[in-house]
Amino acid sequence: MSASPTSAETTALLLESPRRLSVEDYHRMIQAGILEEDERVELLEGVIVAMSPQNDPHAWPVEWLNRLFVRLLGDEYRIRPQLPLTLGDRNEPEPDLAVVRAGPRTKGRHPQTALLVIEVAGDSLRKDLKVKGALYARFGIPEYWIVNLGAEVVDVMTDPEPEAAAYRRTRTVTKEETLTCEVLPLVSFPVRQLFA
Length: 196
Fold this sequence. Notes:
Shape: globular
Order of helices and strands: HHEEHEEEHEEEEE
Number of helices: 4
Radius of gyration: 18 Å
Largest sheet: 6 strands, mixed
Distance between the termini: 63 Å
Helix content: 25-40%
């Protein structure tokens, strides 16, 4: 007779074939009150994932970038701070900032793409880099930034290769440099302002 499996073995067995949720399932859970509408979660690859709490070091770059983008881009674009993007049937991330083209509002639907997505990362750095980076590349988001709070740099990813779920070009912009957005060249600023 074999010994009982350890909790790690049990967890591994259970995760071999998890039931992935669709965006529709996720919305039904919100409508039914299983998830609160303002609960800090997002749907990634069919899994409900907790989002990091927002502290002051996280909030400042989001607020500062939001004001900058609204001022520089005007009415041609919609600036969406911490709002959902629906990417396929199993993903509804809530990036810290997304820039989408302005157009008629589709009632009851979130945008299905963006020109630029920004995540502000402290504890979430690995998830933002590995999981969300692959997701945004797979869905062809042209430019993705990670504002890395620990290193005080901005990692910029461009030229997505959807089949490989990866960005072909990455660069790190330091506090001593000016960051100019490739897809929205009107947006240019000294990186040090994000970490003031």
